[in-house]
Amino acid sequence: MRAAVLERVGEPLRIEEVPIPEPKAGEVLVRVAACGVCHTDLHVIKGEVAFPTPCVLGHEISGTVAALGPGVEGLKVGEKVVSSFIMPCGQCPYCVRGEEDLCERFFSFNRLRGVLYDGATRLFRKDGTPLWMYSMGGLAEYAVVPATDVFPLPEGIALEDAAILGCALFTAYGAVKTAGLEGGESVAVVATGGVGLGIVQIARAFGAYPVVAIDLRPEKLAKAKSLGATHAFTPEEAPQAILDLTGGRGVDVAFEALGRPETFRLALNLLRDGGRMVPVGIAPQGMEAGVEITRLVRRKLKILGSYGAKPRKDMPILLKLAQAGIVGVGAEVTDRFTLEEADLAYRRLDKGEIVGRAVVTMGGEA
C-alpha cells in the first residue's frame, strides 16, 4: 500500500510503498477512504509536539472494513466506518470510569511511543524497519484501529467527508459537552478553522445564542456565518462588540480553538463574571499563556480543558446529529488533496490557506 511517511522532523512527507498491516486480536483493518488534515499533525511535522520518527501521521479517518482481527464482533467486512483520533483501550482506570478521553494507554503507548496497546506498531517498511503510528496512521491506504474506535457510518453521509467526524467534529462535540452548554447561553468561538467551525455548528444545535465567531480571516468568518454563527468579528473588534451584544457583561462560554497565548487570553477576557472558557487548541510543547490570577479568583471564572469527546459514548450521538443534518459534515470540507499531495496539504495549512477542513483522499472504490 501507499503511505505518507515523515522521515524526520521538518522534512516533507514522502509517499512510500509499505506492506499492508495486519490486525491483531480486538483490532480492525480499515481501507482508508479519506483522512482529515489537522493542525496537530502539523505540530509533529514542525517538531512542536514530540513524537518518534519515522512515522505515519493522520488521525481522523473514514473508510471500509477490510478485515477483522480475532474476537471482533458487531462489524462486518465491507461496512463503511469512521474512527476518532482517541482510541480507547477500554481497560485502564479512566476508560472503566467512562473517561475515555483520558485513556492512560492511549497517551502512554500511542502518543508517546507511536504504538498500539501491545507495545508494537502495525506499520513497517519492506525491510522490517518500524514506522510509528500517530493514532492509527491514517495517511495511508490501510490502517489498523482498535475495535473500540470503529463506528458504522449511517446512510446519507458521504464517505470521504465523514473523515472529519473523527477529530474536527469529535473535538468540537467534546468541547461543547465539557462546557456544559445550555440553551440560550451566549458563546464566542475564537479561531474558526475546522474545530472552531464544528463548535459553531454544535453550539447552535445546543440552542446557544448569540454564537459569535472570531477570526483574522474574513473568508473564515464568512464560512462561520454560513454554518450558524450569528455574528462574526476580528480579534480587534470582538471585545467591544461582545460587550455591546451582552449588555456589557461578556459571554457565558468562550471556546479557544487554536492553541496560542494571544487567543487563549482573548477567549478568557471575553467572559462574563462566572463564565467558562474551554481551550481545545493544541499548542507547541512548553507554551504558556499568562492568566490574571486576581480576576480569575474574584470573578469566579472557570477554565475547562477539553481534548476530545468520549468515543464509545459520544461518537454514536455525533453520527446521529450528522445523519439528521443538524451538523453539516460536507459543509466543513473546503479542500481535497490526493495522498501524493499530502505534504502540500500541510504546507497550505501552515500558511493559513485552508478555510474549513481539508481531507486527503486515497482514490479508488472504498
From TrEMBL:
It comes from the Bacteria. CDD domains: Zn_ADH10 (cd08263). Keywords: Metal-binding, Oxidoreductase, Zinc. Belongs to the zinc-containing alcohol dehydrogenase family. This is Alcohol dehydrogenase catalytic domain-containing protein. It comes from Thermus antranikianii. InterPro entries: ADH-like_C, ADH-like_N, ADH_Zn_CS, ER, GroES-like_sf, NAD(P)-bd_dom_sf. Residues 10-360 form the Enoyl reductase (ER) domain. Its cofactor is Zn(2+).
